[in-house]
Amino acid sequence: MSSAVTETEEAAARSSPLTPLKMVGLVCVFLALCLDVGAVMSPAWVTADDQYYLSLWEACWKAASTDNWQCSSTLDSDWQVATLALLLGGGALVLMSFLVALVAVCIGTRRRFYTPVAIMLFAAVVLQACSLVLYPIKFIESISLKMYHEFNWGYGLAWGGTIFSFGGGVLYCLNPKNYEDYY
């Protein structure tokens, strides 16, 4: 008797249609992944008056009287390595959740993968938010620039990826049994 119920539930899960909310969630996860890659590869996390820029990988500066840039690795500083590790860890979770969600869509077993995808996305949000809060605090504490500086588009891309990850996690948390009955 219980095996018949289990087979019926399995068949219902395999044949459940893809809802618009889950499709939008998949698009959010894809956008988060793209934004995370752009943020990690960005050369501009902090810029200062065309004389200094800082990325996750290197810091470059030039004297006002010359056109030669001097660069050094940022992987010598503990807080920059921690920021990079947290951001890459979150990005890896976003990548895994995207792959799991994509495989679930392709093979048709959707319902059983909603919860793991949402958990991975929320874990990625926690890791990335920690890195994005750590970065400006430690930057201001350890690097003293005597000129105007701003957090640039690379830092903004990382926040965008975190926000899209959160949105995808929320969409995958919505109860699929209540919504999929209508589609």
The helix/strand series, from N terminus to C terminus, equals: HHEEEEHHEHH
The major β-sheet equals: 5 strands, antiparallel
Mean pLDDT: 82
Number of separate strands: 5
Counting copies of identical and different chains, the oligomeric state is: single chain
Radius of gyration: 21 Å
Structure classification: alpha+beta
- In percent, how helical is the residue content? 55-70%
Report how far apart the termini are.
29 Å
Low-confidence stretches: none
Spatial arrangement of strands, main beta sheet: 4-3-2-1-5
> What proportion of the residues form beta strands (DSSP E)?
5-15%
Number of helices: 6
Shape: elongated
Quick rundown:
The protein has helices at residues 2-14, 20-41, 78-107, 111-142, 153-173, 176-180; strands spanning 46-48, 52-54, 58-61, 70-73, 150-151. The chain is of the alpha+beta class and 183 residues long.
Name its key features.
alpha+beta, 5-stranded antiparallel beta sheet, 183 residues
Overview of the molecule:
Helices cover 67% and strands 9% of the residues. With 183 residues, the protein is an alpha+beta fold. The protein has a five-stranded antiparallel β-sheet. The protein is elongated. The model has no long low-confidence stretch (mean pLDDT 82).
